[in-house]
Amino acid sequence: MSELTATADPSSLQVLLAELPSGLLAGRRVLVTGGARGLGLAFAQCIAAAGARVVLADILGELAESEAEALRAAGHAAHALGVDLADPAAIEACAGEAIRLLGGLDGLVNNAAITNSGGRDAHQLDVDLWDRVMNVNVRGTWLMGRACHAALAASGRGAVVNLASDTALWGAPKLLAYASSKGAVISMTRSLAREWGGDQITVNAVAPGLTLVEATEYVPLARHQKYLEGRAIPREQQAADVCGAALYLLSGLSRFVTGQVLAVNGGFVMN
Ligand SMILES: NC(=O)c1ccc[n+]([C@@H]2O[C@H](COP(=O)([O-])OP(=O)(O)OC[C@H]3O[C@@H](n4cnc5c(N)ncnc54)[C@H](O)[C@@H]3O)[C@@H](O)[C@H]2O)c1
């Protein structure tokens, strides 16, 4: 164990990066949706540090660009694209441009999602919100995969990592649209894994537990407390805690792993 990993906060990104096997993703080309902030940004930073060239695509195009610029300043190969995953034509254009910029595609991290679905009871949820969440989280995930399929197949080692959520596994209340969308992402992951295995593409999902990012600041304290008390590892979950799972599922280490849901939640839900 290095001095850094022995003494630093075990949930920090620096510790994870210090432990990365060198060249884990060397030469790979990866598109990360929702890469401007939160988990998607942490994924993009780790993926770049693992040697891949990366495109950060997000509805927050300017923020994605400034994060790509920071990655370039640190010596990595990174680009940014603006995209609204609710718009099928924009998804096609984004995938095409990412594949052009990278000269092909080996990995897709379908991370972008509407993460705050209102915190309302199911009987008060409105149809517009349900439709928006489903369009971005489910249809957007499918359409981005579809738009990238040919390039991933051409790679010969394509890997899709879909972001699910443990809310789809434990029946989280007041999150009906969001949790349902993530349940659909899990089903989609399994169906695509069957259909695309013959194209040498693995399709897996990562299901994080409640992770501290800007977007989860709205989550009531009681839910944070419930997670804290329910985890086998009794501490808050950080974005860096989820990165190892994504790196593994994008790398050659998981070449025969497909159709799986990797729950990363400190043991809150044991799948
Ligand atoms: N943070 C958690 O507790 C947690 C837990 C389980 C699963 N997840 C999943 O992890 C992923 C990342 O979530 P996060 O917590 O970092 O939240 P976040 O809101 O910070 O990240 C979502 C990203 O997606 C982008 N996005 C939203 N709508 C978009 C659209 N229409 N088109 C393009 N981009 C769009 C946002 O701008 C943002 O950058 C999501 O799929 C989320 O469901 C998060």
Throw out a few tags for this protein.
single chain, 271 residues, alpha/beta, 7-stranded parallel sheet, two-stranded parallel sheet, 10 helices, globular, binds nicotinamide-adenine-dinucleotide
Mean pLDDT: 94
Bound molecules: nicotinamide-adenine-dinucleotide
User: Based on helices, strands and strand pairing, what is the structural class?
Assistant: alpha/beta
**Major β-sheet annotation:** 7 strands, parallel
Rounded to the nearest angstrom, the radius of gyration is 18 Å
Helix share bin: 40-55%
What distance lies between the first and last C-alpha atoms, to the nearest angstrom? 30 Å
User: What is the chain-wise order of helices and strands?
Assistant: HHEHEHEHEHEHHEEHEHE
Tell me the number of helical segments per DSSP (H or I, 4 or more residues long).
Answer: 10
Shape: globular
| Weakly predicted, low-confidence segments | none
The percentage of residues in β strands lies in 15-25%
Please give the order of strands in the largest beta sheet. Answer: 3-2-1-4-5-6-9
Number of β-strand runs: 9
Describe this structure as you would to a colleague:
There is one protein chain. By secondary structure, the protein is an alpha/beta fold. α3 (38-49) crosses α10 (239-250), α5 (88-102) runs parallel beside α6 (127-155) and α6 (127-155) runs parallel beside α8. The mean pLDDT is 94. The longest helix is centred in the middle third of the chain and has 29 residues, at 127-155. The strands form 2 sheets. A 7-stranded parallel sheet has the order 3-2-1-4-5-6-9, sandwiched between helices. Strands 7-8 form a two-stranded parallel sheet. It starts with a helix and ends in a 7-residue tail after the last strand. α3 (38-49) links the parallel β1 (29-33) and β2. The protein contains 10 helices and 9 strands. Nicotinamide-adenine-dinucleotide binds at residues 34, 36-40, 58-60, 83-86, 111-115, 136, 163, 165, 208, 210-211, 213-216.
